[in-house]
Amino acid sequence: MKLTTKFNFVLIFVFALSFVGASYLVYKILQDNARHDIVERAGMMLEAALAIRGYTVSEIRPLLKEKMQHEFLPQSVPAYAATQSFDKIRKNHPEYAYKEATLNPTNLRNRATDWETDIIQGFSNNPDTTELIGQRNTPTGPSLYLARPIKIKNKGCLSCHSIPNNAPTTLIAKYGNVNGFGWNMNEIVGAQIVSVPMSVPIQKANETFVKFMGFLLIIYICIIIILNFMLRHIIIKPIMEMSVQANNISMGKFDTPEFSEQGKDEVSILAASFNRMRRSLQKTMKMLQDRGPKMH
To answer: How big is the CA angle at 285 (ends 284 and 288), to the nearest 5 degrees?
Structure first.
């Protein structure tokens, strides 16, 4: 096996190992960054919902207080305001979702589905948990959800949700006296859930991964070509020339020029040693030739 072949075999083996290691590391980093980006988006949407809820309580509800005596207006309910606002967003981004899922809601559109019920039960079983992040499959692809518990901390909530007799008559007239009652203080009755699609960020991460690894592969190929060029001109070529001269000298041909001894690298040192050996051998052959006639 030639030296170049051995060198390339080792080089390709090392590059292959580093390529696999880099692939794993880069893929993991890009996927983690994509997931982190999705969580940040979900967090921003949830914070926006909380802001809408707060705005509704502090500024909208007082304006509707007088009208509420004659008719119950859902616009005064924080959950309704947040849900309606995100329904507007979903017209342009239907893949995003926000829901205040509740086990026993007044408005049935907020009733929790099976997977949402599991989240609420998770909060109920672990009261210290303030946030849950998970992933589920949807018809449009994998989706990440961010959920926070809805806990009754304000006694004002019980005026509409304790027992039907305590609820405003306008509320009963609009929604009936069956749903949305029986809530208690410090009880977790639901969860704010934001769902963000993972397909787009993951696709971008995969595209970036393919581009990066393709660019890295091109760099590796260029390095192999450059190293082969340097190996051939710095090491292989001088050694081949020495091999040819050694073969000529072994047959008594000393008419070829000496190697250049410039430089302090190993090849230059080898060239200097070869030149000294050649001179010594040439002198020895000349001495033997001169002694030959005298002996006769």
So the answer is: 85
pTM for this entry = 0.69
Architecture of domain 230-295: Orthogonal Bundle (1.10)
Give pLDDT tens digits for 115-168: 999 999 999 999 899 999 998 888 878 889 999 999 988 887 888 888 888 888
Q: How buried is residue 271: exposed, middle or buried, by Cβ count under 10 Å (0-12/13-18/19+)?
A: buried
pLDDT tens digits for range 110-120:
999 999 999 99
In angstroms, rounded to a whole number, what is the distance separating the alpha carbons of residues 123 and 115? Answer: 13
Provide the token pair at 4: 């170049």
Map out the domains of the chain as residue ranges: 15-197, 230-295
Answer yes or no: are the C-beta atoms of 98 and 42 closer than 8 Å.
no
The token duo for 22 is 């880099």
